[in-house]
């Protein structure tokens, strides 16, 4: 596809695209217990960061 606007000219070639009817491959969804463990780890990390960066009563 070529586009001309005044003095500017641009050309775009699409290569390597799948046909519109094909779906992209998706990674398998993690097991529920893996998701729960990940959530626990993130919550623990959040609490640790919150305690580490707390103002200790100085911020109001």
Give a written overview of the molecule.
The chain has one helix at residues 32-53, and strands spanning 2-5, 8-11. By secondary structure, it is of the alpha+beta class. The protein has a two-stranded antiparallel sheet. The chain is elongated. The relative contact order is 0.07.
Question: Topology, please?
Answer:
Elements lengths: L1 E4 L2 E4 L20 H22 L7
Antiparallel strand pairs: 1-2
Number of helices: 1
Strand order of the largest sheet: 1-2
| Main β sheet profile | 2 strands, antiparallel
Which structural class fits the helix and strand makeup? alpha+beta
Radius of gyration, whole Å = 25 Å
User: What's the pLDDT, averaged over the residues?
Assistant: 80
Order of helices and strands: EEH
Distance between the termini: 60 Å
Count all strands and give the number: 2
Q: Assign a percent range to the helix content.
A: 25-40%
Low-confidence stretches: none
Shape: elongated
Strand content: 5-15%
Features:
alpha+beta; two-stranded antiparallel sheet; 1 helix; 60 residues; 2 strands; 13% strand
